[in-house]
Amino acid sequence: xxxxxxxxxxxxxxxxxxxxxxxxxxxxxxxxxxxxxxxxxxxxxxxxxxxxxxxxxxxxxxxxxxxxxxxxxxxxxxxxxxxxxxxxxxxxxxxxxxxxxxxxxxxxxxxxxxxxxxxxxxxxxxxxxxxxxxxxxxxxxxxxxxxxxxxxxxxxxxxxxxxxxxxxxxxxx
Length: 173
Description:
Elements: H1 5-10, H2 19-27, E1 31-35, H3 42-49, E2 57-65, E3 68-75, E4 78-80, H4 82-89, H5 99-106, E5 124-127, E6 134-138, E7 144-149, H6 150-156, E8 160-162, E9 165-167
Organism: Terrabacter aeriphilus
Domain YbaK/aminoacyl-tRNA synthetase-associated: 38-156
Protein name: YbaK/EbsC family protein
């Protein structure tokens, strides 16, 4: 069952505490905190937060080399482009760390990862589709979202902005 927007709003945002929520509050940027039940897809998460899938940002941890990681922010309706990110980073090889390694670097479980409040401050690469839009990122716990302006995220993390995604191609059954 997908929680609806009214259910998400019933949580008192001031009572929600995660390192990510604390960090966005400390940054002093305009934000909205939502809480909803666990979801099983990006579309369910977007519906629970009352936004379009394109405004739900996937935060990926990418490993350039041993102990060298970056955050990559990609809109929910787009696909991370390995080739574009490799070209941007000037390397022939990048990879995704396993769940344990990603948690060691960020302090967050997969599905909750966000640059806000990360255990390690990593460089951020933001897809150009974040510019000028209000977006929602993970809030550091399952079912917690942070809705902010993409421009604030870019400014706060001094993100590199680039075209690093491709239009998502849906498979027909």
